[in-house]
What we know:
By secondary structure, the protein is mostly helical. The protein has helices spanning about 1-40, 50-75, 80-110.
Amino acid sequence: MEKEQHEQYEYARKRLNQKKRLYFHFVLILLGSIFLSLSNYFEAFGYTANWAIWVITAWTFLFILHFIKVFITDRFMNKNWEREQIDRLVAQQQRKIDQLHPQIEEKSSNKPE
C-alpha cells in the first residue's frame, strides 16, 4: 500500500511541476510579447516590418503544443494508461501462445523418433 501512495505522490508532484512550468511559460510569453511589440513599435532593432508578429505567432504555437502536452496528452497517458496497455499486450501475447501450444504439442507427438 505504501508503494501505491508513493507512486501517487510522485505522479502528483510531476503533474504539479508540469503545470508550474506551463504557467511560467504563459507569463514569459505575455511579457515577451509585450517587449517584442514595444521593440517593434519603436523600431529598437532597426527593422521596419512587423517582425514581432511572426515571432509571437511562432512562440504562441509552441505554447499551444506545451499546453496540449500538459493538459491533454500527459493527463490521459499516465502510469495507469501504460499499465493497462502493457497488460493488454501481455494478455494478447498469452492468447497467441495458448493458441499455438496445442499445435506445437501435436507436431512434437507426431514426430517419428
